[in-house]
Amino acid sequence: MIQPGRVDSVAVLRGSPLFKGVPDSILGEVAQHFYPVAARRGHFLCTEGESGNDMFILRGVVVATHQTHRFERLATLEPGDAFGMCALIQSDCRRIASCICREQMVGLSMGRITWAELICRNDTVGSVLRTAIIRALADQLAYANAQFSLFDMRR
Q: Which domains does the chain have, with CATH numbers?
């Protein structure tokens, strides 16, 4: 990782579909609980099989890969995309893919302990984060269902 410098955290959150429709004033409150991250091209943000403790929201391009007998590209994550949410809600969650920066990247991250404290709060920040994780999981389920449909059509 490199020093992120100044990161406009509200802009990063605003660019993510997870926070669609949330006013900037509330995004400012939510952003206070994330920390900025930055990495150079080729840096691994996470490695397949390692224990995950953080989620990331990107403002850069990252390639998600899976290693079988060779590296296989699973997805290209674009600015606004997020990954690692399962690490927030499952203890001892292992990363299912490696995420490699395709270009210099800045973004935001949040750890499991912060997440656990915030989602229990009965306030706007807690509500926004609960809604964000539901959106993330719903999007992942829809993607998995679409992949199953494609697989089934090929048979």
A: 9-154 (2.60.120.10)
